[in-house]
Amino acid sequence: MTRFETAFAKGPALVCFITGGDGDTAANLDALVEGGADVIELGMPFTDPMADGPAIQEANIRSLDKGTRTADIFRMAAEFRARHPHVPLVLMGYANPMTVRGPEWFAAECAKAGVDGVICVDIPPEEDAALGPALRGAGVSLIRLATPTTDAARLPAVLEGSSGFLYYVSVAGITGMQQAAQASIEDAVARLKAASNIPVAVGFGVRTPEQASQIAKVADGVVVGSALVDLVKQHGDKAAGPLKELTSALAEAVHSAR
Amino acid sequence: MTAQPPVNSLRSLPDASGHFGQFGGRYVAETLMPLILDLEKEYRKAQDDPEFWAEFDALMKDFVGRPSPLYYAPRMTEHFREAAPAGKGPKIYFKREELNHTGAHKINNCIGQILLAMRMGKTKIIAETGAGQHGVATATVAARFGLECKIFMGATDVERQKPNVFRMKLLGAEVVPVTSGAMTLKDAMNDALRHWVANVHDTFYIIGTAAGPHPYPELVRDFQSIIGKETREQIMEKEGRLPDMLVAAVGGGSNAIGLFHPFLDDPEVAMTGIEAAGFGIESGKHAASLTGGKPGILHGNKTYLLQDEDGQITEAHSISAGLDYPGLGPEHSWLHESGRVRYVPITDDQALEAFKLCCSLEGIIPALESAHALAALPQLTAEMDEDKILVVNVSGRGDKDIFTVAEALGVEL
Predict the structure, then answer these.
(1) Domain A3-255 bears CATH identifier 3.20.20.70
(2) Catalytic position from the list A5, A22, A24, A41
(3) Cβ-nearest to A97 among B193, B197, B310
(4) CATH level 3 topology of B19-62+106-220
């Protein structure tokens, strides 16, 4: 079984996002795992994060201002893998930093660092050639996004060539802003699960254990990002404690649906 | 519009998937993808609809004031002929886009896009703007057709372009100051995209240049091609032959591609695109993506970008706000690599010299963008024989730039 399969086999999984290089990343990642996160998403900072709301935009800027380089992100990933051999690790980011040295280079670095999957916000199925074949060739999952605008006709193209899990972006919008209505999430997840044989995780706008527990009743995973990133903003290099606390509450809420 | 270009034409791109060779494409978030596909479908229908073009042409004529003149510039011609080696110094013509309504070529594209927006049933318009020219043109067409309009503009630009901000407000648009990043054009585009993702159901994004995800580079080019088509007819009427050289400034590249595209299959017509070299390429403070950048992915397309080795986008600099962007349209990247168009960098100082020269010799105050194109004339005219013909696209008027120019010349207004 892959790390993803193991993580999702236990029932609804909690997927936690933080931006690499923002605060004490190693301590923060450990706090997420200790708090009960089942899958980790590590954000690769980018100067122009078009799909992100203010919280994650600012985290990108804080990280880049501290001088975070792509090599640092892979170092953080490799060290995480050494400390946590079984927790799935996903890199999330934008096309340009991922392809600037060629997709094969990026895919090979992911494999070397023990990265299980990659989410690239601005490479839709239509541009798969820019990254997908290289990742699949290196045995790294390409995790695609489905959104409220992804209709039944498009869904097979989104699923084609993707693996690990499907990330359902529950609102047409940017990260960390509004929250989707539970009913719309239930309808969408049912539709996605019917078409897909990989787990479906739901994210964008999920901030509280209450929301997470509602979503966990229907989805295979719940993604939380901006709420965690806000804690790093608030506590700087000493965010591990508060991160662990929020993650524990979220994990309890998600896992209680198991 | 619908006539097929010949086989092996340089005018047949983008391909069916929106690529110009390795450039272009549709690098957008999944939320936008269905809308982008819809837009393409709607554009294909419009392309084949004579009524669409009839309405476009009527607005071009009576609202924009087209055709814009092709003007023989006698004193500039004389000036450069005197400076050139014996027998050199071509006849110089200006394509006078600065005489259009709102003072630049931008309106051509805005008219085309708002007609598409209405065909798609969208009721709200958004756009990004740097100096405010595209913002004003967008606010103008939104007012003309009674659609709600939001213009995203970097907070830094809002502060330094107050007259245009006021113009947009007079035209009924809401100007949204963008405080992310360096608070300039690139960030305005990011925030326009963020707003669009959240409002795709009723909102149309009028992109200001021949860049962004397919089909934008293609449709913006097609709407701006009216510049080159008119030039072709006008030069045939005046000279009985095609020009030998076309010159235009390239920021995103819409005025240049509009002039160049109808001539791409005429090998006797050479073309020069002018990039903004700011303080000089070696200073690192410039906006010359082809000369100083490399291919990458941003704002929906693959194209040459100013970036570091990790693919982080670097800040552009140009005295001309309209050229102050770290990328350019994908078709220009392709024309550069294919060698069909030569791209030349021009510094702030060179552009200022040309700005002054054009004012004093021709009685025309050009936009700083257009002054970059004019600044290539000393070099280009010295290499061309007297009996040759050169056309410069004077893409906009310079009234908006007088404060910037005064400051650069140390004049207090």
Answers:
(1) yes
(2) A41
(3) B310
(4) Rossmann fold (3.40.50)
